[in-house]
């Protein structure tokens, strides 16, 4: 059976909400709520990859595992590859990149994505959910993904494009993208070795680096739509 490790990139210097990994909900820092969800999925070892001593110490203080990485990374995927190499593991087939600012992600969606990857022998996989409010299509804070076909519980179609702007004038099958990725180890290494592309930099979406270099990304349907914490308003809403 192929093995998966869950790596969680985390840093204190988020532009819109600095220090958010250590903001507390129910007496636990946000980053550790994410660690707990990852552990509940029971699909493999869980390690936080961070450039900050404060996060490293807090994760370890709560009984988690963390590794210190460089502060020069341009994306979370670049950070987790360094963390993976520092761990010195050689018996892992897939690396799952779980965002450190989505503490209410459903562990069943994590399990489902991992199963789809293994069963389809895919290179990169991610999650999306249905858009239930038309206003989301024009909301640039919400990342959309366009797919080759309609998404269901039983399929794992390819992504055609990712964008912050409205895609409805170009594509038929548009969904709300959830920022979780799972890579074959060799594909993550290949991805990180590519230079950032013009699209990635312009639209601030690292997944475009893969598409621009002809690496296919499959998408599974998520049953829930987790709240990502990007602003103080997000944090207060989730805390409430």
- Sum up the overall morphology in one term: globular
Roughly what percent helix? Answer: 25-40%
Order of helices and strands: EEEHEHEHEHEEEEHHHEH
Low-confidence stretches: none
Provide the residue-averaged pLDDT.
92
The secondary-structure class comes to alpha/beta
How many strand units?
11
* Backbone CA Rg: 17 Å
Sheet of most strands: 9 strands, mixed
Write a structural description.
The chain is an alpha/beta fold and 240 residues long. Helix content is 32%, strand content 23%. Strands 1, 4, 5, 6, 7, 8, 9, 10 and 11 form a nine-stranded mixed sheet that branches. Strand 4, helix 2 (53-61) and strand 5 form a beta-alpha-beta unit. The longest helix has 14 residues, at 107-120. The mean pLDDT is 92.
Compose a concise summary of this entry.
The protein has 8 helices and 11 strands.
Task: Provide tags for this entry.
alpha/beta, globular, 240 residues, two-stranded antiparallel ribbon
SSE layout:
Layout: E1 4-10, E2 24-25, E3 28-29, H1 30-41, E4 46-50, H2 53-61, E5 66-68, H3 76-87, E6 94-98, H4 107-120, E7 124-129, E8 144-147, E9 159-163, E10 173-184, H5 185-193, H6 198-203, H7 207-212, E11 217-221, H8 232-239
Parallel strand pairs: 1-4, 1-6, 4-5, 7-11
Antiparallel strand pairs: 2-3, 6-10, 7-10, 8-9, 8-10
């Amino acid at each position: 059976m192929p093995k998966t490790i869950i790596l969680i990139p985390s840093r204190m210097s988020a532009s819109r909400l600095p220090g958010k990994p250590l903001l507390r909900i129910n007496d636990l820092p946000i980053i550790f709520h994410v660690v707990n969800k990852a552990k509940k999925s029971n699909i493999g070892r869980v390690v936080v990859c961070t450039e900050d001593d404060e996060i490293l110490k807090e994760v370890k203080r709560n009984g988690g595992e963390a590794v210190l990485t460089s502060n020069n990374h341009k994306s979370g995927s670049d950070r987790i590859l360094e963390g993976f190499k520092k761990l010195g593991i050689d018996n892992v087939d897939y690396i799952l990149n779980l965002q450190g600012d989505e503490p209410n992600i459903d562990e069943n969606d994590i399990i489902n994505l991992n199963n789809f990857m293994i069963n389809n022998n895919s290179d990169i996989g991610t999650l999306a959910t249905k858009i239930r409010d038309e206003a989301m299509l024009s909301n640039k804070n919400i990342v959309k993904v366009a797919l080759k076909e309609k998404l269901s519980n039983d399929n794992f179609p390819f992504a055609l494009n990712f964008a912050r702007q409205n895609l409805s004038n170009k594509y038929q099958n548009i969904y709300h993208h959830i920022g979780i990725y799972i890579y074959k180890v060799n594909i993550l290494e290949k991805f990180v070795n590519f230079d950032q592309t013009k699209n990635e930099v312009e639209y601030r979406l690292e997944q475009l680096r893969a598409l621009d270099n002809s690496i296919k990304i499959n998408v599974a349907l998520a049953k829930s739509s987790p709240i990502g914490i990007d602003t103080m308003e997000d944090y207060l809403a989730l805390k409430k």
